[in-house]
Structures are given as C-alpha cells and as structure tokens.
C-alpha cells in the first residue's frame, strides 16, 4: 500500500471547512448571501463598493444576486488571502455587527470600548457609524489583528 501523496497546505481546501487559516468561511458567505439582495455577502467578503451597488439596486435587480451564488467560493478564497486570521475573528465580528451593531457590541468585541459606549448611547452614532463599520469592518479587524 502506497502512502497518500503529500500536498501543500491549502492546495485544495474544502470550501466548507473551518480550517485555522480560513478567515471568511464559504458557508458563512452563503448565509450572508441569503441577505445578498442588500449586499451583505459582498460587504462580508471585503467588497464594499459592490456591496453598496447591491444595496442600492436590490442585487442588480436580483439577477446579480443569483449569479453571486456561484461566485461565493471565489470571493471567500480572495478574502481568505487578503485578510489573515488573528485574535479577533472576522465572522464573529460580522455577526455582532449585523445583529447588534447599532448597540456597538462588535466594537466592544474588538476592544474599542470608548466607541462601543458611544454607539450604545447613540444607536451607532445615529446609523452613520454603523454604515461606516459595514464598509470598513474587515480593514478594522485586519489592523487590530496585525498590531494588537
């Protein structure tokens, strides 16, 4: 019996796995895709410009939203290469922002206590800070993981 051939790490990663080097799992991308007509999956994968376009056009009138179902694995791979893992988990931060962002819970999780309190008292700075975080959250987490 011959031993299995050795492959390089990440040679053909399972897109639904939760490997240590996966910062943006495909499965989570599909869960955000369900809200894709508002661009949630595009924001999650670090594509804020097309996320805004999807938000304003209903996922380009739902056609682009359906087409995106086939591009989720590619978007996840690109995000995994661009945003390395660290002590702050991207997915946890995105889930907190999505469901509790107006209360600043994601900012408390990232260690930004002062702005977390401000968001808590002002409804995410009256929604403007929430919109800012939707567009920049991956970069914020990346910076904190790099320097924190």
From TrEMBL:
- What Pfam families does the record tag this protein with? TM2
Cellular localization per UniProt: Membrane
Supply the alphabetized keyword list.
Answer: Membrane, Transmembrane, Transmembrane helix
Q: Does the keyword Membrane apply?
A: yes
The TM2 domain extends over 26-70, 90-134
Q: Please verify whether the record's keywords include Metal-binding.
A: no
Q: How does it sit in the membrane?
A: Multi-pass membrane protein
List GO terms (cellular component aspect). membrane
Name the predominant localization.
membrane
Transmembrane portions of the chain: 22-40, 52-76, 88-106, 113-132
Query: Cross-referenced PANTHER family, in alphabetical order?
Result: BETA-AMYLOID BINDING PROTEIN-RELATED, TM2 DOMAIN-CONTAINING PROTEIN DDB_G0277895-RELATED
What protein name is recorded for this chain? TM2 domain containing protein
